[in-house]
Amino acid sequence: ETGVTQTPRHLVMGMTNKKSLKCEQHLGHNAMYWYKQSAKKPLELMFVYSLEERVENNSVPSRFSPECPNSSHLFLHLHTLQPEDSALYLCATRQVSGTGELFFGEGSRLTVL
Amino acid sequence: SQQGEEDPQALSIQEGENATMNCSYKTSINNLQWYRQNSGRGLVHLILIRSNEREKHSGRLRVTLDTSKKSSSLLITASRAADTASYFCATGATGANSKLTFGKGITLSVRP
Q1: Chain B neighbours among A 57-96 (CB < 8 Å)?
Q2: Which of A80, B15, B22, B90 is the most buried (most CB within 10 A)?
Q3: CA of A5: which chain B residue's CA is closest?
């Protein structure tokens, strides 16, 4: 148990569906991240929220929409995805003034049909 | 880019042997971190070494950092079957808006 919980763990959706991934942290951290992990590729940083403000948007397509309503919750809203968006989506948190260590959730495995 | 590149891509060893994994990066860093990932799970932080440090130990882990060569190595001594996982190095800087850049990872298989 890392203190970072992601739901759902597995999601299958069609290209026309709308779904959301949720991340909840109980560590009191003030920065939250979304990463995408595809096979044979490095982890891709998608979004960063620091002190509840989005500070990074790494040229991610608009079909991915993040939301950070408070310091404990982070969402990734998905709509009209493509099959190449199938991947493991990882949420991570850290304390901005801390050591720089990231704490990851277990990930949400997304399959787009 | 500060992307870390791990080497080798895959490593298979016998239980009890030592495993050495390498990471190279391109630009100046403030710290370098190693993470472990079991199949289908999230990443777990193993160890962080700062740019002014040359070596660090944690249990069976030993990390070295050579900033002149822009490289790091992770040594796992007396490996166990439970060490089977993917290992990633990540480079980054501190600061409110800092980010870590990960490599593709090394797949380590430890045969019982």
Answers
A1: 88, 90, 92, 96
A2: B90
A3: B42
Beta-carbon contacts of residue A20 (< 8 Å; ≥ 6 apart) = A75, A76, A77, A78
What is the rounded CA–CA span in Å between residue A107 and residue A29?
Answer: 18
Q: What is the mean pLDDT of residues A66-78?
A: 94
Taking the C-alpha atoms of residue A66 and residue A84, their distance in angstroms, rounded to an integer, is: 19
B97·A50 Cβ contact <8 A: yes
Could you report the per-residue pLDDT of B30-80, keeping only the tens digit for each?
899 999 999 989 999 999 999 999 999 999 999 999 999 999 999 999 999
Sort out which chain A residues have CB atoms less than 8 A from B30's CB and list them.
Answer: 100
